[in-house]
Amino acid sequence: MSQVEENTSLNFIEQIVEEDLANGKNDGVVYTRFPPEPNGFLHLGHAKSICLNFGLAQKYGGKTNLRFDDTNPVTEDTSYVDAIKEDVRWLGFEWEGETRYASDYFDKLYSLAVELIKRGKAFVDDTPVDEIRRMRGIPTQAGEESAFRDRSVEENLQLFEQMKAGDFSEGSRVLRAKIDMASPNMHLRDPIMYRILHRSHHRTGDAWHIYPTYDWAHGQSDAIENITHSICTLEFEVHRPLYDWFVEQIGEFDQEMVNPQPRQIEFARLNVNYTVMSKRKLLELVNEDYVNGWDDPRMPTIQGLRRRGYTPASLRNFAERVGVAKRDNVIDLSLLEFCIREDLNKTAPRVMGVLNPVKLVITNYPERQTEDLTIENNPEDAEGGTRTVPFSRELYIERDDFMEDPPKKFFRLGPGREVRLKGAYIIQCESFEKDTRGEITTIYATYDPATKSGEDTSGKKVKGTIHWVSVPHAVKAEVRLYNRLFSDPTPTDHTDENGEPIDYKKFINDKSLVVLDKVFVEPSMRKVSAFDRFQFMRKGYFCVDPDSSEENLVFNQTVTLRDSWAKAKKNN
Ligand code: ATP
Ligand code: MG
Predict the structure, then answer these.
(1) In CA terms, which of 56, 258, 451, 478 is 20 to 30 Å from 216?
(2) What is the dihedral of CA 553, 526, 471, 572, to 10 degrees?
């Protein structure tokens, strides 16, 4: 990640890790994991977590597991598993050994639960779930103990086995840890460890009728995998005492499993303005057709960003710049855009594409003549090479590069004005034509043969350079321009006059997608492949859509250019 300024100070997680290493903890091993639930596609927040977990292991010579936390068969699916693996690899990371699954540990988790029952630390509760919730009480007041809390170990074992065998209906019983109904930490009030679900699981099929809760499965999965540093987001901070309690109980009979004890470290989840970052909300946008699927280029999903033209390096860079915080905050979308611009500025070949064309005729240029001009591919890349671009008498230029009555500071084309055509000649506008609606249809100009780029002997100076595409050689394309998905920086944060939350979907930006279907690009663009990225000079960065074909070229706008190229470069 060379683009990142050398950052010598450690973030707070690195400090903890270095402290552990200095103290000789875990024999100097750093073992992290990325634990997604396969119930949706990964988003930018997950990218942050991936970079953090894999990045730490890379920095300290450790390892990282990819583990699917697949404890909820209702919302999970194999298609998500495959997409998540692809996303992690695309970001540039490879996990240690086989892909892991919490479901691989269902047997182990079950036997641990049986052991807890035997030790009087867990019980089967017949209380309906709603009632259990009510009886938990509120943080400032003790909850009520279940009437089934003091069942005998034998009865608990018997019932738990029957739960497993599928003897009971969904919701009729749960297994709970027996901790403390008066604890100020609600998570310690006899939390649920297992619920009955007669559902097929995407990996274990119909083998199970009970499924572990996240709280029960997660910490134990970390322990089974010998994870040393279990990094998660802030909302799990209050769960930590529960995880520690489980480890303590298990340590009574299975020291090996809980050694090393995974050290949980919480950091603030990544939030970015003008978007939403929860799988549930993203799923809603897809299901309710606000966007065209999970990989819609407006989505903050890794697949959406990829289709938009983001590179893995730019996302890793973004994750690095965002840093890790202990408090919730909102990152500006422009930082993300900065990161991709910085990358593409160095790597994307420059081409000419006219998004909103108007015809320009060079009246003193011979009819039917074509010249092959040599233009460099990327002034920022010494090895970028050159390409030939055909020039002829009739060109397309941008409609807004011409003004009928331009102000003084308009350094582009207008009656009598001169500009340079990129890589070609200086031209002077002679006249123009309009149609009955007053729209300009054709601009006429003359060129000065002594002003050819690279061989200019005229001594002329002009302030503006514009891009163009030769009409007979032009390749037609569609360009999709994107804007922020939401018109409000924090769409999920609003309430109405009654204090009720306002649906974040009310803030969707109805101009988030603008399709330009009469774009012309230079002929070198005939040979592009999906995901190729270019800078359309003066217009921004664009990426070839995966559905694009030679007959129907489609480009997604990745990001605009920050500065007007016309001002920065002169007489080129
Ligand atoms: P969501 O709320 O979008 O559904 P999640 O936390 O439920 O996300 P998981 O699949 O459980 O999604 O998350 C996998 C890992 O990614 C977890 O370690 C989680 O903490 C981390 N993660 C999820 N969202 C973010 C985020 N916005 N910023 C940083 N890390 C995140
Ligand atoms: Mg989740």
Answers:
(1) 56
(2) 110
